[in-house]
Amino acid sequence: MKKRLTKILALGTMCMMFATTALAAKKDFYFSLIPVGGESYSEPNAKSDNEGYAYVTVESANLISGDLVEYSVSNKAKTAVVSQSLPIPGTIKPYRQTLKYKSGYAKKGKEYRLKVHTYNYSLQIKGKWNS
């Protein structure tokens, strides 16, 4: 009986590990943008839950001192910003940022875009985001 219970628990644990990994992989989005004193949008990304936050992980960016970059979430049509906008000044290292959706947005299954705006210089950014 003890051996059987151990096997069942081990199998259950393995199933949970693989299921969680598969769900997380669907939310990742890779982008590389080069706005020149303007803004750019990622491809649409479907929201996988009703949580009121989006997560941006910047892996590399060529920000220089005196520049300012701003991240926000936009609707699919690029006609409205549906989250708070957070500006990041100066030279940065890889970091993670959380964007809070405005009230009434953040609906599971709806598609959103990550919007990046640079104020002064050309910019290249690489990273991932979860809507």
In short:
With about 130 residues, the chain is α+β, with helices and mostly antiparallel strands. It is built from one helix and nine strands.
Write the layout of secondary structure elements.
Layout: H1 2-27, E1 30-33, E2 39-41, E3 45-46, E4 53-61, E5 68-75, E6 86-89, E7 95-100, E8 111-118, E9 125-130
Antiparallel strand pairs: 1-9, 2-8, 3-8, 4-7, 4-9, 5-6, 5-8
Core attributes:
alpha+beta, 5-stranded antiparallel β-sheet, 4-stranded antiparallel β-sheet, 1 helix, globular
Task: Explain how this protein is built.
- The structure is a single chain.
- With 131 residues, the protein is of the alpha+beta class.
- The strands form two sheets. Strands 2, 3, 5, 6 and 8 form a five-stranded antiparallel sheet that branches.
- The longest helix has 26 residues.
- It starts with a helix and ends with a strand.
